[in-house]
# Entry
Amino acid sequence: MDIYEAASQGRIDAIKFAVEQGCDVDGPNEDGKTPLWFAVQSGQPEACRFLMSLGAGRGPQNPSLLEVAVGGGYADIVALLWPHCNAEREHRSLKTAISLGFHEIADFLIETGAFEYQDSEVSGTESLIEDGSPERESTVFQQWERFLFVRRGQKLPLHRVFFDYALLLATKAGRNAGLRLVEFLLGESMPDVNCKIMINGQFETPLTAAAEKGNLEILATLIDHPNIDLTICGKYNWPAFLHLLASPLSISTERGRVIARRLAYKAVYNRLFIDSREIRLQGAFQNVLRFGDDGLVKQVIDLVRGAAGTLILPLLIRANEVDGLTWVLNCDGVSSKKPPPAFWVLLCQYFKRYQDQDALGLFTSVTEFLVEKKIWNQAILKCLHACNFSFIQQFFYPLSEAPPKEVTEETLVGFPAASTNHCIIQEWAGQGFARVA
# Structure
């Protein structure tokens, strides 16, 4: 039995024998883990005490031994290790203790006085990095809410960053479940309402997190806070306005649109969108085309501008933004695959509902341009001149049942989006557009 297995099993006699045979009491194995790490990880307090009496644990440990003990819920080992820890580097241990529900350990750590605001130099933008999954966030929030409410009325000697983290968790809780904790924390002036915390490699803020989750009640509370900065950006360097638009359930409601307008008023334009992957912007654009009014469409255009490339074409058409459209169409990025088919379908649905002649004229000009560039087929222009938006939608995207395998003039008759224009039906069938769709 080697010293690592002996430590893991708490075998003091085996540890003694290994040391007598020349084993380094603090030597790492091939994975960089020491005998003391194995004793801590397995919850063996007597083995920990014995190894430390032989000098173990004096060098740097990776990961933190204290955090390993906290993660296992070993309160006696936490108390044993604490006098030998560098308190300034152990802020994550307290976060872990609260998040996992080991509140007795959390109380012990707080009582040491090492986590007080005036004594700690922990930066709010660099600390409490969380690598949990979205499912775990809900459990973690519940533990923080319970910890804080049980100690309501007590003065907790904590650095503000811990309250910042609690506020962020509350804003991320689904279905506004964190509203009570948000109101409590802000009412006691515990956190910084504009704090930034690193989560899975991205900075998040309470405002942008609530917008991303579509928590309208929490958003309304934050917006009304006297110190809130509505221009602050979080994940992907997006403002809360854009995060809210990407939440379909929120933007589909009138209240969601009202809040979006309030956020848009303060959004910073000419913002560089870091890591603005198309799939994220697609969601926001699709929602604003489906649920937003003309005002929201124009505000999105003003905010994003050229950062979206050709994805923004349908928004520019709907808002009749000729200059922006000309710039995008003359760039090198124009292709038949961008924007996605669903965007053009939503634009066609808009024209079916509203007689917007200015925007329709611009759509026709764009179609002529794309036909000339051989990106779109001439048939789509004929459908547009005939205002046959049903067939145009088929060209882009099948909205209902799949078209028949054999496309002929006869099989198209009676199809849900069939036209009464004989020439269009004949050309559509002849070129097989339904099969392509």
User: Anything to note?
Assistant: Residues 118-127, 399-405 have pLDDT under 50 and may be disordered. The radius of gyration is 30 Å. The first helix runs from residue 3 to 9.
